[in-house]
Design a protein that fits this description.
The chain is an all-alpha fold and about 150 residues long. About 60% of the residues lie in helices and about 0% in strands. Helix 2 runs parallel beside helix 4 and helix 3 runs antiparallel to helix 4.
């Protein structure tokens, strides 16, 4: 190229392919808080508290059947929170609400209890805590939108 002639660089609208990748978006606790997720987790904790109150009263009133109903309700809420949010925190948020209420209603230092008998108390508390731990530590749920298998296969 001589004198006044310059070679011009080709310009296109396509992105550069040789550029280094940008920093990935932070995930987990490093991610920016999402107000919608905070509202969902708070709602799940409130539902956990409501299930804890209802379960406490039902298991004490109708011992064998009420205990089973209270455990099924707790399990449904913990698993439902896990499926709804697709995170482990989805199972732990209602468990925290449940746990706080059950501990508050479980007994006082004066010896008064909301629970009917000691075996119901032990089964309700240990059973619901075991279900909460199982729901929180279960393997990652499959994504049904990306699953190419037919249902039931």
């Amino acid at each position: 190229m001589s004198g006044g002639q310059r070679r011009q660089r080709a310009v296109s609208g396509a992105p550069r392919t040789d550029a280094p990748p940008g920093a990935p978006e932070p995930t987990g606790l490093a991610a920016r808080p999402n107000p919608a997720r905070i509202a969902v987790y708070t709602g799940l904790a409130v539902l956990g508290a409501a299930v804890g109150v209802a379960g406490t009263l039902v298991q004490a009133a109708l011992f064998p059947g009420g205990l089973i109903l209270a455990l099924v309700a707790s399990a449904g809420l913990f698993y439902g929170g896990r499926v709804l949010t697709r995170t482990q925190l989805g199972a732990l948020a209602p468990a925290v609400g449940w746990f706080v209420v059950v501990l508050l209603l479980g007994g006082r230092s004066e010896g008064d209890y909301v629970f009917g008998d000691e075996i119901g108390l032990a089964l309700f508390m240990l059973g619901s805590m075991a279900v909460a731990v199982m729901c929180a530590t279960m393997a990652r749920l499959p994504d049904p939108a990306n699953d190419s298998r037919p249902p039931g296969a």
